[in-house]
């Protein structure tokens, strides 16, 4: 028991040493994952800008059609980015778990049964792309750009009449389809294209920021929980061994006392047996003397 207790003390010291060493490897794996993810994000960002520019090449294209295509394009890109990042960081979870498992393997081999019985399992959980992920809002973006341009046109022409916003009538099914009785307004597609490009840039910046923050938060929590739970398992095991040792020491004193009592009993029994033999011999001697 003393040997096992000392071995666990050494394992706790080794765990602290490995914790400092493994932090560098964990950091390296995270840097690789984030670098790869940011590279993929930049590729998607550049591809989106090229595709958006292609959508605005035809000035005669109805705005409603352009908006529909933009919504489809951005939604597809958003789904692609989220799906790719989910797969990347599921793989990162497995990699980090493997790194931590390698750290505790020398210790686990020494106390494998006890750790298995305690139910300890290393693991990371990244809450990435759930709830706080930014999203493209193409419909709102179109409405804001059109409203801003409408306000600019009103100031430049200094008209005193109140006009309906573009967002109200651009959604009509017959908009721009030869209704000659309806007033016609024009939208500067270059302004709209620049606004969409800025929205793509902002989205990618937010994704990169959210990504780094959530990974840092998840890894920090995972590392702290991992080493705290593992150290707790070893400490609990050490405590049980100390209790067993204390109980055995208490029992040893009782057993030692019983052994002493048993030895005294055996000695007393020997003395009684010897005295009985001597007494028997004396009685036989007396009977023999009386006969003669």
TrEMBL record:
<protein>
    <recommendedName>
        <fullName>Clamp-binding protein CrfC</fullName>
    </recommendedName>
</protein>
<dbReference type="GO" id="GO:0043022">
    <property type="term" value="F:ribosome binding"/>
</dbReference>
């Amino acid at each position: 028991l003393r040997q096992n207790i000392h071995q666990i003390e050494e394992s706790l010291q080794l765990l602290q040493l490995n914790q400092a060493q493994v932090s560098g490897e964990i950091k390296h794996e995270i840097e690789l994952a984030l670098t790869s993810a940011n590279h993929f994000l930049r590729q998607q960002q550049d591809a989106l800008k090229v595709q958006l520019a292609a959508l605005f090449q035809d000035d005669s294209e109805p705005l409603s059609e352009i908006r529909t295509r933009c919504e489809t394009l951005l939604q597809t890109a958003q789904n692609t980015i989220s799906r790719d990042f989910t797969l990347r960081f599921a793989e990162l979870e497995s990699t980090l778990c493997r790194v931590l498992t390698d750290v505790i393997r020398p210790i686990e081999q020494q106390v494998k049964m006890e750790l298995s019985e305690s139910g300890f399992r290393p693991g990371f959980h990244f809450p990435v792309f759930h709830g706080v992920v930014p999203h493209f809002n193409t419909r709102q973006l179109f409405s804001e750009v059109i409203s801003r341009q409408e306000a600019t046109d009103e100031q430049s022409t200094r008209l005193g009449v109140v006009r309906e916003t573009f967002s109200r009538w651009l959604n009509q099914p017959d908009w721009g389809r030869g209704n000659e009785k309806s007033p016609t307004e024009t939208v500067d597609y270059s302004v709209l294209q620049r606004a969409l490009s800025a929205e793509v840039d902002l989205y990618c910046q937010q994704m990169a920021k959210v990504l780094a923050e959530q990974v840092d938060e998840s890894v920090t929590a995972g590392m702290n929980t991992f080493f705290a739970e593992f150290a707790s398992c070893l400490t609990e095991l050490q405590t049980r061994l100390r209790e067993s040792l204390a109980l055995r020491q208490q029992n040893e004193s009782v057993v030692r006392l019983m052994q002493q009592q048993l030895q005294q009993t055996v000695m007393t029994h020997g003395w009684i047996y010897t005295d009985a033999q001597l007494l028997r011999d004396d009685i036989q001697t007396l009977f023999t003397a009386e006969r003669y």
